[in-house]
Amino acid sequence: MSVKTMQTQEVKELLEKVAGLNQAAGNDRIKTIVHRVMHDVFQIIEDLDITPEEFWSAVYYINDLGKNGEAALLAPGLGMDKYLDIRMDAEDAQAGLAGGTPRTIEGPLYVAGAPLCDGFARMDDGTQAGDIMLLTGVVTDEQGNPLAGATVDVWHADLKGAYSYFDQSQSEYNLRRRIKTDALGRYVAQSIIPSGYGCPPEGSTQALLNQLGRHGQRPAHIHFFISAPGHKHLTTQINLAGDEYTYDDFAFATRDELVVDARPVARSAAGERHGVTGPVTEVEFNIKLVSTDSKDQQEMHKRQRALA
Ligand code: MBD
Ligand code: FE
């Protein structure tokens, strides 16, 4: 069967009514979007000759996806977060705001309101005996001038690849801290080297990835929001070098400039300034922010985020 009905007056009128285009009430922007989305869905059904069985399996897939709370997990898996980044990079270039440390996706596992510390934070609650991570760096402007009082909001997974709050077995705000940079723009954190993340094996996201012949793994990584007055807000992550998935991230967050070595050292100067003595695994991530007067650019974009 390969019937063509999209060009008929009946379908055209149906789409207009579906999107409320013949109604005065409602929101014009939403109408425009829904009209386009439903048009394109109908067009896909026609072009790919989608069967009723395929259609209904998609409908109930979305039901399960929502029940499992995985919509914001499937999104990066399908490259949507990465695509928004590609657009924001292009917008920045157009506005003359390119440069600095590159952005990469936020992911679905941020929790607002982590403890705020001055210069140094101990991030782990001491319950997991992982490799001690000494995470350190300097926040500067594009000219390399240190930015004192910048906020470095850091979050990462535990040894199971799980995040506190979403993993109720962890203590509140475990592996989540906000650190204010010191007078020299430096931040230091003591934590544990995170493990990579894997999508829930029985979840909806992994079910679709299986159909695509794809895995649902992320390399060991550490998330950052960095902000300072007069500078563009930065959402980014580092991926640890040497992980099987460093360059094969199901969420497409890897960028060459954001791959960082985890180096075992006998002692860390940055750590010793804060009483962390002995061997640690040092992870250094220096951050360059782009200056801007735009208050809008200085803040992270709005999206639904958890608050513990
Ligand atoms: C993560 O930890 C993550 O960062 C992303 C983008 C998706 C799933 C889990
Ligand atoms: Fe993550």
From TrEMBL:
The keyword Metal-binding applies. Its cofactor is Fe(3+). The keyword Oxidoreductase applies. Pfam families: Dioxygenase_C (PF00775), Dioxygenase_N (PF04444). Pathway: Aromatic compound metabolism; beta-ketoadipate pathway; 5-oxo-4,5-dihydro-2-furylacetate from catechol: step 1/3. One of its GO terms (molecular function) is ferric iron binding. Residues 135-163 form the Intradiol ring-cleavage dioxygenases domain. It catalyses: catechol + O2 = cis,cis-muconate + 2 H(+). Its EC number is 1.13.11.1. GO terms for biological process: beta-ketoadipate pathway; catechol-containing compound catabolic process. SUPFAM superfamilies: Aromatic compound dioxygenase. Keywords: Aromatic hydrocarbons catabolism, Dioxygenase, Iron, Metal-binding, Oxidoreductase. It is an enzyme of class 1 (oxidoreductase). Belongs to the intradiol ring-cleavage dioxygenase family. This is catechol 1,2-dioxygenase. It comes from Oceanimonas baumannii. The lineage of its organism: Bacteria, Pseudomonadati, Pseudomonadota, Gammaproteobacteria, Aeromonadales.
